[in-house]
């Protein structure tokens, strides 16, 4: 009786069972790695939120938004928002952004820190009217910041009866 085929068969079974254990071990390691990645992403999100709360607490948080109502009589090219206590906010519009605004999009302009109290804001919205003439729409208004976040939207809307456009400040 030749023992070689039996030994070869036992060796093959031993190798295959070791390979199966390694595969199951690799699957376990892959699952562990995936879990660690998820944990790191969740921790990163929590750290970002904590950083935002520390750098910009609700008592000083303010945000500016911009929207265009219809946009038949005015096409925005840029906006500049100034006021005491924060850096000037500037944005230049692309054709794609203007198209999105005409479809009803509301654009976040900036998140700033603004101390409680009264603040004078001035927004200059530059653009062209339906005749291709350069126009500036100016919104100048005093706002009061309380201990809650301040959300402001600069809205440009058509004035159909005057065939023109106007701008206003809307509080959320």
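Sequence proposed for the structure above (172 residues):
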């Amino acid at each position: 009786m030749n023992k070689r085929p039996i030994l070869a068969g036992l060796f093959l079974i031993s190798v295959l069972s070791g390979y199966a254990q390694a595969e199951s071990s690799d699957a376990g390691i892959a699952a562990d790695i995936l879990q660690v990645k998820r944990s790191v992403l969740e921790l990163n999100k929590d750290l970002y939120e904590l950083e935002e709360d520390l750098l910009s607490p609700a008592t000083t948080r303010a945000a500016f938004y911009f929207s265009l109502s219809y946009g038949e009589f005015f096409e925005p090219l840029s906006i500049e928002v100034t006021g005491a206590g924060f850096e000037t906010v500037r944005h230049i519009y692309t054709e794609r952004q203007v198209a999105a605004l005409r479809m009803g999009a509301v654009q976040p302009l900036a998140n700033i820190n603004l101390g409680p109290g009264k603040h004078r804001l001035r927004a200059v919205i530059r653009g062209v009217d339906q005749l291709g003439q350069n126009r500036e729409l100016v919104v100048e208004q005093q706002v009061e910041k309380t201990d809650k976040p301040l959300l402001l939207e600069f809205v440009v809307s058509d004035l159909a009866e005057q065939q023109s456009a106007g701008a206003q400040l809307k509080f959320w």
